[in-house]
């Protein structure tokens, strides 16, 4: 048992605690949900448990395929033990299909398959509402070194490839997703979470949205969508993982 120490950070969806080992943190996933920079607030029943489980499964799958992650083990229904990282304040978004802010920004129709997948960076800053930035901004603001940017890009493309392939047999289409990376003793690890809060998943047959867009856009059936993603991903476990 790892004892929960001082609360280090509380975000919109998670709390991070120190442990008695300075190299390890505990991450606790909450049922709270926000959208549009916290303007819209709510809770999604069982979200904490579902996102903790899904993140654990995705991180395990990815680390077995060569992506270094912060994940160590799941220590409770909504709790993960992770390597202590300092989060790089850059969100990395990968997109395969047009949706959300890309549809708006470029006037493209949601659902259009991109001729080539796209990577975007956003500056993690609540006050500034996470503005989109590029490699030059990241270097100028010293948010990460050029080598670290390259590494994040390489991992993001690899994660995209691995997740798309992994989810295909579950008839889940990976539309887009957001990753965060952290530094642990100088090395970059994939961190944060991978869940329906941070990815867009569409049913491959019906096109139904199975992610946080159901909450953002008041589509109803939010809990059922999260449960459905978990059910399908758990079915993939075994030889696939
Ligand atoms: P966007 O289309 O709103 O820019 O979102 C792109 C992807 O990033 C989508 O899968 C949802 C995820 N995302 C987050 O994880 N956190 C956020 O705060 C936002 C805005 C998006």
Automatic annotation (TrEMBL):
Residue span(s) of domain SAICAR synthetase/ADE2 N-terminal: 7-232
Domain of life: Bacteria
EC numbers on record: 6.3.2.6
GO molecular function: ATP binding; phosphoribosylaminoimidazolesuccinocarboxamide synthase activity
UniProt family annotation: Belongs to the SAICAR synthetase family.
HAMAP family reported in the protein's UniProt record: SAICAR_synth
Protein name: Phosphoribosylaminoimidazole-succinocarboxamide synthase
Species annotation: Neomoorella humiferrea
Taxonomic lineage from the root: Bacteria, Bacillati, Bacillota, Clostridia, Neomoorellales
